[in-house]
Amino acid sequence: MLFNSYEFIFLFLPLTILGYFFLNHQGWKGAAKAWLVVASLFFYSWWNVIYLPLILFSMLFNYIIGSSLAKLSSSPNPTRRLLLIAGISGDLVLLGYFKYADFFIGNINLLFSTHFSLLRLTLPLAISFFTFQQIAYLVDAYQAKAQEYDWLNYALFVSFFPHLIAGPIVHHREMMPQFASPENKSWNYENVSRGLFLFFTGLFKKVVIADTLAGWASFGFDQASSLSLLEAWMVSLSYTFQIYFDFSGYSDMALGAALMFNIRLPINFNSPYKARNIQEFWRRWHMTLSRFLRNYLYIPLGGNRHGEAKLYRNLIITFLLGGLWHGAAWTFVFWGFLHGLALVIHRLWQKTGLRMNQVLAWLVCFNFVNFSWVFFRAQSWPEALKVIKGMLGFSGIVLPAGLAGKLGFLAPAGVLFGEFTLQSPARAALLLAVSLALVLFWRNSMELEKDFTPGLRQAVWVGAMALVAILSLTGISEFLYFNF
After folding, report:
1. pLDDT-derived band of residue 147, with 50, 70 and 90 as boundaries?
2. Is the dihedral of CA 379, 385, 388, 390 positive or negative?
């Protein structure tokens, strides 16, 4: 089920909230948790019920391993370490089979001219997210930072629908004490108001801004045979802002929906396009994934503890695997490599002691992110190179025909005047300019929520956003991170 669907907004969400608080009000605490678990699994199954046994198996497997790690806290370290390795290995095997089997088979066929048949598996919804969340839980259980002996509590921790599909990736200690708190079991009007504000802010970002930009991005990447300079930049920027408003919109909706249950999920998105270097970008973009990669991959690899050369190696490996986590394609791996390399260059630049003008620093960072998104979005290498060639001017420069009278002197330099293949270029340019202004100069939704005070003016504002967003639900589209 999608957050941006009539079924979710008008039926599932209100009924789930009312049922949860009604059961708690009656004193049926266990039934309230069970209601939320069943509702969350129903939410998950709406997409394809055939994968319900898969997530249930994954949850049960990790619950058994995690509770065993907690019970064996006094056992010799090798015993617990072997159990942890078995648990993580089981998770990675499950993820690898469904997400990467065909990728590896295809590459083996390419390298060795073999003809192994592809499995053509459908990627189970949210498998990357619930796998990473449970790996983090196992490590936390091993380090005695988390323990859970109640199956219903564990099922709620994994399946809670606001974060289930695309994050944030939550630690057990961040969420479950909130469910245990007696004061959180009662209806809280302020939290509901704040939750509605976040939810409809996110819905507006998704359906009004991101889905509009998606049309230009899809045309440029998937349909156009070539792109002139301006068209290529409009296409790349359309995707750059599409993924920003799509993912930040989802994050807002996830945090808003959880807050209506009196649960605060960790912030996952903090104005990343304001970053003035790539390290800052990753402290602001998909913050819980960055935290996971740092704590459970980069630091175990050695982090920065064994000299500069190994630090750079660890950065590259971390982001290569981070790219692969996003998708089973070499374009994703290359995208990860670019970001790992950028972090290495950033570290080397810091060692020189030189300082860059802040505006120039932002421009360099933003344009690097924009260029690298091309490989993230492209379905193939030729598709990515088509856009990059256009952005570099290798596919020609075309200006609107109406400018021929004033800029005709540029014709000898190879500038053409005519119609764009991209539809409504003026509208695209206007929306891109508005998007840039919003991400740079407008306070983000987390900052706005901190200062949010329920009242008539706020109700009118939220109601107007909700009305515009709901009226824009003409075609339901998935969130981009649902594919990962």
Report:
1. confident
2. negative
List active site positions. Answer: 326
Q: pLDDT of 56-109, one tens digit each? A: 999 999 999 999 998 887 666 788 899 999 999 999 999 999 999 999 999 999
Q: Does residue 406 surpass a pLDDT of 80?
A: no
Distances in Å between the Cα of 391 and the Cα atoms of 262, 386, 398 are 47, 9, 12
> Hey, what are 469's tokens?
């967003």
Determine the residue type at 9.
I
Secondary element (H or E) of residue 418: strand 415-418
Instruction: Tell me if 132 sits within 8 A of 171, measured CB to CB.
Output: no
The conformation of residue 455, written as its DSSP 8-state character, comes to S
Which amino acid appears at position 82 of this protein? Answer: L
CA 164, CA 397: separation in Å to the nearest integer?
A: 45
Place of tokens 């790996």: 135
Tokens at 22, concatenated: 């009604």
Q: Is the dihedral of CA 95, 96, 102, 106 positive or negative?
A: positive
72-86, 138-152, 222-236, 293-307: least confident range = 72-86
Half-sphere exposure of 131 (CA within 13 A, CB side): 21
Q: Where are the domains of the chain?
A: 48-159, 191-483
Are residues 377 and 239 in contact, defined by beta-carbon separation less than 8 angstroms?
yes
Q: What is the DSSP letter of 115?
A: -
Under a CB-based contact definition with an 8 Å cutoff, are residues 185 and 24 in contact? yes
Residue 335: exposure state from Cβ atoms within 10 A (0-12, 13-18, ≥19): buried
Q: Count how many Cα atoms sit within 13 Å of the Cα of residue 83 in the half-sphere of its side chain.
A: 24
Task: Please state, in angstroms and rounded to a whole number, the distance separating the CA atoms of residues 156 and 37.
Answer: 5
Give me the amino acid identity at 338: L
Label residue 278 by pLDDT band (50, 70, 90). very high
Written as one string, the DSSP assignment of 138-182 is: HHHHHTTS-----HHHHHHHHH-HHHHTT-----HHHHHHHHH-G
**Taking the CA atoms of the chain, what radius of gyration do you get in angstroms?**
24
Contact 146, 118 (CB under 8 A): no
Q: Share the mean pLDDT of the chain.
A: 92
Give 261's contacts (C-beta < 8 A, 6+ positions apart).
17, 20, 36, 162, 184
363: its two tokens: 């421009």
CA atoms within 13 A on the CB side of 29: 9
C-beta separation of 38 from 292 below 8 A: no
Q: What is the mean pLDDT of residues 324-345?
A: 96
Closest by Cα among 165, 87, 162 to 128: 165
